[in-house]
Each structure stands twice: as C-alpha cells, then as structure tokens.
Amino acid sequence: MQRSQNNTSIFHNIDWITVLTYLLLIMMGWLNIYAAVYNEEHHVITDVSQKYGKQLIWIATSLLLALIILIIDENFYTAFAYFIFGAILIANIAVPFLGREVKGSRSWFRFGDFGVQPAEFMKFAANLALAKFLSNQNIKIADYKNTFISLLIIGIPCIIIMKLQDETGLAIVFAAFIFTLYREGLSVNYLLLGFLAIVLFILALLINNLYLFIIIGSLCTIALLFIKRNAKNLFIIGIIGLTACSMVRGTTFVYDHMEDHQKIRIDVLLGRGTVDLKKEGYNVNQAKIAIGSGGFIGKGYLQGTQTKYDFVPEQDTDFIFCTVGEEWGFVGSAFVIILQLFLMIRLIFMAERQRSPFSRIYGYGVASVLFFHLTVNVGMTIGLAPVIGIPLPFFSYGGSSLWSFTILLFIFIKLDSKRLQILR
User: Fold this and answer.
1) pTM of the prediction?
2) Buried b (16+ CB within 10 A) or exposed e, 191-208
3) Among 53, 67, 110, 120, which residue's Cβ finds the most Cβ atoms within 10 Å?
4) Mean pLDDT across the chain, nearest whole number?
C-alpha cells in the first residue's frame, strides 16, 4: 500500500469535530472536579496536592497518549489486537494478587500517590479483539459458534473483573458490546431475551412468585386464544412459558446469592421495604437534592452548597453529575448530556463511513461503551439506575478512566483518518 507524499502528517484526515468535542468535555470535566472539591484554603487550580491538580496531570498525559496513538501506524491495532487483549487480561488476573486494596476492592496497581486500574483498559482491549474476530471474512455472527466465541471475548473479562476484583460496575459495562454485535447481524431475539430477563428480574423482586407464575400462565393462555392452534405454536408458547418461569426462579436464586451491598442497591432502586435515608438511601437521596436544588439555570459556578459542604458522596468521581446539576442547573445538565450524545452520534456516523470492517466494528464498540457509561452514571444519580460506581466519560476524576476513554476514542480516530487509503 503506497502513500502519497502529502499524506505523511499524523493529523491528515483527522476528524477535528470529534477531537474538539473530546477537548471540550475533558476541560469541562476538569472545571467540575475543581468545583466538587473546592475549598478556600487550596484554591489554586493547578495545585497538584489536590485532586484537580492531579487531574490536570492526567489530562496532560492523556493528550500525550492521544498523540502517541496518532503516531503509531494504524495496522498495529489490527495486527496486535489479540496480543493487547491477552496482555491486559493477564494484568487483570494478576492485580488481585499483586495490587493494593482500595475501598474494599483489590483492583489497583499503586505507584506512589497514583494508581492504575487495569479493568478500565480492558474495555478498549476487548473492543480490539472483538473487532479483529468479527472482521474476519469467514465470520458470520448468525452462526451460533461465532456468536459463542464473540460472547466469550466479552464474557471472560467480565467474569474476571467481577469475581477476582469485585468490580461489578466495571464488569457490567461489557454488556454494552451487545449493541455492536447487533449491528453486525446478531438476531434481535437476543436483545429481546435480554430485555425480557431484566423485566422478569424486576417483576420477580416486586411481585410474589406465585402471582407472577399466574400472570405468565394467563398470558400464555391468552396467546393460545388468539394464535392458530397447531402443534408448532403450542410447542413455542409452552417453551416461552417454561423459560419465563425458569427465569423467575433463577432471579430469586441470583438475588439470594448476591453480596449484601448489592442487594441494598437493588432494594433502594426498586423501593423495596423501608429505605433509611441516613444509611443505604443516603447517596441517591443527596444526589437528587443536589441536582434538584440547581433549578433551571443553577446556583452558579463554585456556589453549590450541597457540593461545597460534602453532602454528596464521591461527588468528584461517580457522582460528578450532581455538581453539574447543582451549579449549572437544568440548562447546564442538558448541555452536558447533549454534548456527550453528540459525540456518540458522531462516532456512529464515522463508523458507518468506514471501508474496513475492523474499523466499523471498533467504532460501534466505542459508541456503545460511552453510551452505557453515560446512561448508567446519569441514571444512578437521579435514581433510575442502581449505584454501581462507573465514571461519567471524560468528566469523573481519575487517571485510569480518562486514559482508557482517551485510548478507546483515539484508536478509532486514527483508524478513521486512514479510511481513504483502504482502496488505494
């Protein structure tokens, strides 16, 4: 593959709209981290002894990472996709034994005052491996064998992160790749089955199992009345009914074997029993108060009382959106969400214009991961999703998350910049 002389710049064909959106998001995130931990004694925004000063270092190193990614030849990411996946997988297996415990989870490698969480980097590694596998000319996702292998690429890191590191939130993120598989031809039945499982899980926790079994049986009976009765239809409806009943029983089993803190989070979300707002319901309640107090235009930058007096826990990481809601109000919150969604829509547009299947699949993976993070993070701050502790992309404090999102995004930006050379 030959390249023309005027295509030697690493910035040639770079999608600057995406890059500028990324820069705007990380700068807005930095300002909100400053607001979240602001105090008058340490008010210099570049003070590296404070989180906002450290975040500035993470931003600088992220920009350096982005530059390195753009310098590296795009063929590197396809050629070494499996190697990168394997290396980071080994790091995730090793961290429970060699890492340090942080907040009850041994999932960090510590280097002085800084820590690196390998689970964050597993997202882009799994995305590379999945794109490498599905872009093979002989692979068709409709084949059950290929579907199984794809789910293994997604599922193995998920299980390792959940079981060895006790990081349920980061493990659940891998479910986002189901959207990528759907784009590549996975049957919609898998999505419907997943949606049905979630609905039945919620219903099984809210309704007595006996009543739920009666409801399922009634729905199957009604279906029989409106569908032509033949052996095939009877068999299908019977299988659906038995599957649904099995899932209900499975829900009870899964819930009973969850950790106590996981049960509490689900109970708080669903409003099961009496929620003590001073204990298990404190986080979500304070988050709602902070966001609600911002009103339409907010209290003003650095004027958030809920934020300033530390009423909201983890307000610079998992609950950073509370700072946005309180100080910027509905207008600012809507702008942040729209900006995030704009980035994702832009990524989907870029993915669809790719000439390489690898680049297209990887691009959809990036958009899917970002969408999952945004939906769950914002959802848990307003009580629409369980508190599982995942960062808001490019906003939450933390080097590992910012690095991982930067790597995830800029690999695709690099791949996209070379799309015009595929047919040359």
Assistant:
1) 0.87
2) eeeeeeeeebbebbbeee
3) 120
4) 84
Mean pLDDT, residues 42-70 taken together:
89
- Please report the DSSP string for 148-161 in residue order: HHHHHHHHHHHHHH
- Number of domains into which the chain is organized: 2
Q: How far apart are CA 325 and CA 318, in angstroms?
A: 14
Proportion of the chain in helix, strand, coil states, percent, rounded to 5: 70, 5, 25
Q: Is 188's pLDDT higher than 90?
A: no
Instruction: Report whether 196 contacts 244 (CB < 8 A).
Output: yes
For residues 405 and 400, give the distance between their C-alpha atoms in angstroms, rounded to a whole number: 9
Q: Are residues 251 and 356 in the same domain?
A: no
The helix or strand, by DSSP H or E, that contains position 107, with its residue range, turns out to be: strand 105-111
Q: Are 41 and 61 part of one and the same domain?
A: yes
Domain hosting 134: range is: 5-185+274-421
Rounded to 10 degrees, what is the CA torsion of 380, 386, 391, 393?
Answer: -60
pLDDT at 330: 94
Q: What is the pLDDT of residues 134-162, one digit of tens each?
A: 998 777 887 888 889 999 999 999 999 98
> Mean pLDDT across the stretch 328-357?
95
Report how far residue 126's alpha carbon sits from residue 369's, in angstroms, rounded to the nearest whole number.
11
Cα(199)–Cα(125) distance, integer angstroms: 31
What is d(CA 13, CA 203) in angstroms, rounded to the nearest whole number? 50
Which amino acid type is present at position 390? I
